[in-house]
Amino acid sequence: MTQQTAAAVVEMTGISVEFPPVKALDGVDFRLRPGEIHALMGENGAGKSTLIKALTGIHSPTAGTIVVDGVERRFTGPADARAHGVSTVYQEVNLCENLTVAENIMLGAEPRLLGGLHWSAMRRQAASHLERMGLNIDPASSLGSHSLAVQQLVAICRATVGDCKVLILDEPTSSLDTDEVAHLFTVMRTLRDEGVAILFVSHFLDQIYEVSDRMTVLRNGGLVGEYVTADLPAAELVQHMIGRSMEVLEAAEEVLEHTERPADATPLLQVVGLGRKGSVQPFDLELYEGEVVGLAGLLGSGRTELARLLTGADRADVGETRVAGAPARLRTPRAAMSHGIAYTSEDRKGEGVVDGLTVRENIVLALQARRGWIRPLPRKQVDDLVASYIKQLGIRPANPEALLRNLSGGNQQKVLLARWLATAPQLLVLDEPTRGIDVGAKAEIQKLVADLAAEGMSVVFISAELEEVLRISHRIAVMRDRRKVAEIDGGGATMDQVVDLIAGGGAK
Amino acid sequence: MATSAPVRASRSLKIPTRLDRRYLPVVGTFVVLALMLIVGGTRYENFLTPAVVSNLFINNAHLIVLAVGMTFVILTGGIDLSVGSVLALSTVVTAALLQAGLPPAVVIPLAVGAGTVIGLAHGVMVHYFQVQPFVATLAGMFFARGLCFLIAPESIAINNASFGELASWVQIFGGWRMSSGVLIALVVVGLGFLVLHFTRFGRTVYAIGGGEQSALLMGLPVARTKVLAYVVSGTCAGLGGLLFAMYSRSGYSLTGVAMELDAIAAVVIGGTLLTGGTGFVLGSVLGVLVLGLIQTIITFEGTLSSWWTKIVIGVLLLIFVALQRILTLRRT
Amino acid sequence: SDAGGEPAGGGETTGGGADDGVITLGFSQVGAESGWRAANTKSIQDTLTEENGFELKFSDAQQKQENQIQAIRSYITQGVDVIAFSPVVETGWDPVLQEAKAAGIPVILTDRAVDSSDETLYESFIGSDFVKEGEMAGEWVAEQYDGEGYKAVELQGTTGAAPAIDRKEGFESAIEGTDVEIIDSQTGNFTRAEGKTVMEGFLNKHDDIDLVFAHNDDMGLGAIEAIEAAGMVPGEDIKIVTIDAVKDGMQALADGKINYIVECNPLLGPDLADIAKKVIAGEEVEKRIVVQDEAFDQAAAKEALPTREY
Amino acid sequence: MTNILRHYLFWPVAALVALLVANTIARPSFLAISIRDGHLFGAPIDILRTTAPLLLVALGMTLVIATRGIDLSVGAVVAVSGAVALSHIASSPNPESPVTVLTAIGLALALCLVLGVWNGFLVSVLGIQPIIATLILMTAGRGVAMLITGGMITTINSAPFKVLGSGFWLGLPVAAIIAFGVFAVVAFVVRRTALGMLLEATGINPAASRLSGVRSKTLTWTVYTASGLFAGLAGLLISADTMAADANNAGVFIELDAILAVVIGGTALSGGKFNLSGTLVGALVIATLERTVTVLGISPLVTPLFMALVVIAVTLLQSPRMRERLTAATRRPVATTPPEPQPAARPDSTEVKA
Ligand SMILES: Nc1ncnc2c1ncn2[C@@H]1O[C@H](COP(=O)(O)OP(=O)(O)OP(=O)(O)O)[C@@H](O)[C@H]1O
Ligand SMILES: Nc1ncnc2c1ncn2[C@@H]1O[C@H](COP(=O)(O)OP(=O)(O)OP(=O)(O)O)[C@@H](O)[C@H]1O
Ligand SMILES: [Mg+2]
Ligand SMILES: [Mg+2]
């Protein structure tokens, strides 16, 4: 089914990688040609990241050969791979927050002056790389001061510096909004036309179809096949990926259930004039039982910061908060939790996972913290709880004692979701909960959210994927420039309407 | 799908009008140091004189060098507990070899090189065997001290004429004095600064402290850099030993007991985070001066019993750290 | 932190003279590592008082040579009349003593000597002779137990410290030629706790220890604890000889748990005051003043105990 | 086989066994235990007793390290504890009375608790880096202890107090019974409640723990307080051992020994997962090592070298790299991760954004 167009720049044959007892990859073949964008597809834990890491020398395969540019190689690590023209953006943002943006982009290929770093040239060059990505930030600012999405873009900038023959992007778009994605694709296409071979991982099928030329599908560490994108209908692709038919996806289509809210209902959470200097302008918001409120906005528009103020993760300077009609002070996440408010951070690595603990411990962490240390949850109850979430969310490997750090990105995300669901909150604030989650699981999660709302839970849903927000929300609050600019009914809203609001009232 | 750039125009980061947050701790230390000097000046006669300030540097030249090396290691997120012992080893080697009649031109590289070798061993243990830095360098600390005893259980005086000349070289400007030790220390500080800020090695040191995993995935030479950081620290300890030998004109195996704590304290007071990734050599120099100033104040006070000396050192340390903390907090 | 608070008045700021009759003396102590040292400090502080015509500037070097050098430098800049100190180490004092000499400030050493080729750098050295102390202990042992094939263990002071080196040397030279044999020697760092642990180890290791020579009383007292715990009688089953004669040691000696103590007199204050006055007055002083050290056996201890000052 | 080799306790236990074997070769009756004066006697019993204070200090240190901290002040707290207790007994008219002794113990422990609270305050409330926060007390604490004893070594005679150091109960040293007892209780509490997990979460990712509602500050504060208290108890055992309070030398370098014990026991200084049983073995290794130096008759001049070599050997053998090699040698090759990515023991984003 594959046609031989050009000699492959990367040719991996029979690759196996083991993390006893898990067999993460089992005899996988993979071929990447110059001048193509090649999508690597598969469910969470299918082995995509592992394949990439096997290529760049982070994991050494137990079997198989890797040929790069006609020479058989085993890279000793990313530095080595980079030196041979293979640049990679790994799944989690792997940059140094304490360094400046310019350093993060240029280190390793830095301009020199008299043997030392040439700072001003470095900033200049960094700025031009940023510009190409459509990013307008100060190269001298420290990376940590930027949101995750910006960091992700910076990571991509870094990968495109220097002469790379192969560019690997492991879920680069999971935290980007449409705008940024469009930019990224422009850059990718330019590079492709220059002859660079691009490996691209994403769980967004529309993106795959938009940008890729060819795809390889993995399932459970095994190779399913290599296809030309144009020849493979989405339904079939999904079937290849999950080994089942498309029905799961369709189930999610009609999740939204509109129940009329009584006019005199007390909001579960009501905030008036809540704001914080330098973060979000004062805003009002009411959240009712059984309702999903979506937050829409561009990257950096302040959705995350709004969510953090709602849930005590950041302390508000001004404004009032009422929980079920009674004034409440949510100064810490713990205080919010005691009012039944839960928050999942978008920053999975920094503020979510406790990667040295097991899946079980991560799932019960919040619940246990709320009970206090003195009263441990009975072991039986813990095991049941954990087992049920592993099943419900399809966490893999289904081993409660696995260390979280050994789970694939998407599975870590599911564990975090389980942590908060386990506390049975009244209000659940989900910041990018579907980031990096595969199509099947994403549908499951959307369905879950809808079900929870139907059972009376109030949910705030933030996602970079506007479509998802539209589909799932009863009401949508639109953010722009750290300000809440509009609130619209989710049922009637159309994509264009929201995009207009986001972009500033139809600027174009 | 493809809406484009203009909407993003408003999102460019605002130009920082205030001081970069990263410099706050250093500035904090500087302010507190200045305050302390002023308070001391009004409290004690002859305190705020060029002689006292010069002595502050002369007495602490070796510690400055140690702190510079320690800064490298701490910036990578590690720690080097061996510097006190390595300093002693270097002084003992210097004294013993000079006594044996070798010329300084041979002795000096050997003494400094002893530190380099131990630093290399630390780096290899820490990086390639993944021994925790604390333990690897603790073992190094015992090891170097043990070598000291083997080489010379008793203290050895240095009578070598040319070494003495080198050691006693002093430049005087008005009331200010600058010894050869201070000059070397300042050169080391300058080099440390240049290396950290103007070489890839230096920036990689910061990158490793910011996240070793990330630095690695960024394709930076983590292994080499980490090992080199310990080599720098070991070399600085060796050089510090040489300075101490010049300062005390002798080699003694019990020199520098617990001096590693002084070096670490200086680095941390100077605003470097022990978790790595943030800090400056110049901050560490200020940290050393703070510790030196505490000693000076104690001597000027002149009435403190042994125990009050300890308590006052603790209290002054607390005041420094707390003030620095407050200065830093209020700005953020 | 009160007395030094007021700006120092009058003539004390210029070096050399003591026109107002008050001698400003800067004293740099090693540290406060032992009871002996505390007694030494107390003696100095109690003697160099205002009534006796002194203004004492005291600093504690916390066992660090660099602190001591900086203290001496500081005394020079402060312009004291006399500098006295107990050096942490023997070597390495020439430069700073030269500075003192250049500033015209006389220096007196107490307790420990300095190793310097230039004797003019200091006026006088007051203190015990550590080698002599070791010899006295050894001589007594030789006298009492020679011919009985005694097996001795030694509890050394801090490795590398002058008293430890000298006392060991003195003891060894004194028992040379006798049949007293040192079968084991280990450092107890001059502390009671380590003295006890090391002695326990010796008792685990050897069945036939007859005598303990400890470089100070504290380690000897620790050894007593270990011996008692092993079900033996200190002073009888195992003989104990120590150096220092601090109060606890003397008490143990009087109680029969120690057999012999060589004194190392910490009361250097009066001698120091005396020498300082002479030096200021321009009188000739002796370069080496050896403090009178006594030695006590059990009977002598019972007698001396009631009147001991420390 | 492989599983045993991989176990975190394997190398520390192997080190302990090796030391015991070395001692037994040097002194065949080393392990012999006899009965003297109605209690057990012999080198192993001595080792148990000398381990006691170190074990207590290392216990507190383990908890502190789990939260990514360190407590350098334990040695000073040991000194303060002894100084307070013995000064009280020495100044009381009736040093032999159990009431006096109990009051002295109570006073000492109360003060040490306060010192622990102080450390906890500096670290968790003021946010001062642990190493510096505790360095303050490390310096000043000894001064306080000397202030209490007036710089002299305070010696007492008090039979009830002496029991703490040299007494025996059921043939075993009281000191060991106390330390091992406290250890067992704490280990039980930590592992049977959720405390252990919450401490680990705090140590691994403070930011995530805060968002999960873990009271990280309170926990941090608690472990420093506990560390102070245990160090105080250790101080009582140490001073009762020689019946003397030596403000200057009691507990000197015990912080290093304790940290070493923790590390030998397989707990990473970068915080997170901790092994109390490892700490126990680590403390025994160190106490045995000290005894070994005497039994093997190693000259004081080479003692530090000997210690260095043992520490290097143990830590190298149990380093992740070495373990990997050994397991790789005993089974067919598997995917190995190069040394770098592993330090995930140190999560990359470390700062709590307050
Ligand atoms: N270091 C490791 N140790 C143990 N198991 C691992 C390790 N890394 C990955 N795995 C396992 O290997 C399998 C493949 O993981 P991988 O990260 O490649 O998945 P992925 O396809 O990238 O998934 P996602 O879409 O969620 O990112 C998973 O089952 C994971 O648990
Ligand atoms: N393009 C940008 N330029 C400069 N700063 C940015 C940009 N995007 C985000 N930021 C910074 O990052 C922070 C992002 O805010 P926040 O995370 O609340 O936005 P968001 O709407 O949740 O965006 P995201 O899609 O990244 O989650 C802001 O404080 C802002 O300073
Ligand atoms: Mg992945
Ligand atoms: Mg966001």
TrEMBL record, chain A:
GO terms for molecular function: ATP binding. SUPFAM superfamilies: P-loop containing nucleoside triphosphate hydrolases. Gene3D superfamilies: P-loop containing nucleotide triphosphate hydrolases (3.40.50.300). Residues 10-245, 260-506 form the ABC transporter domain. Coiled coil: none annotated. This is Sugar ABC transporter ATP-binding protein. Keywords: ATP-binding, Nucleotide-binding, Repeat, Transport. The keyword Repeat applies. PROSITE patterns: ABC_TRANSPORTER_1, ABC_TRANSPORTER_2. It holds the Pfam family ABC_tran.
UniProtKB/TrEMBL annotation, chain B:
Its main location: membrane. InterPro entries: ABC_transp_permease. CDD domains: TM_PBP1_transp_AraH_like. It is a multi-pass membrane protein. Keywords: Cell membrane, Membrane, Transmembrane, Transmembrane helix. It is found in: Cell membrane. Signal peptide: none annotated. It comes from the Bacteria. The chain crosses the membrane at residues 23-44, 56-75, 82-100, 106-126, 133-152, 172-196, 227-247, 280-300, 306-327. This is Galactofuranose ABC transporter, permease protein YjfF. It comes from Promicromonospora alba. The gene is yjfF.
TrEMBL record, chain D:
It holds the Pfam family BPD_transp_2. The keyword Transmembrane applies. Residues 329-354 are annotated as: Disordered. Its main location: membrane. It comes from Promicromonospora alba. Keywords: Cell membrane, Membrane, Transmembrane, Transmembrane helix. InterPro entries: ABC_transp_permease (IPR001851). The keyword Cell membrane applies. It comes from the Bacteria. The chain crosses the membrane at residues 47-65, 72-90, 102-128, 135-156, 168-190, 219-238, 250-269, 295-317. It is a multi-pass membrane protein. This is ABC transporter permease. It is found in: Cell membrane. The lineage of its organism: Bacteria, Bacillati, Actinomycetota, Actinomycetes, Micrococcales.
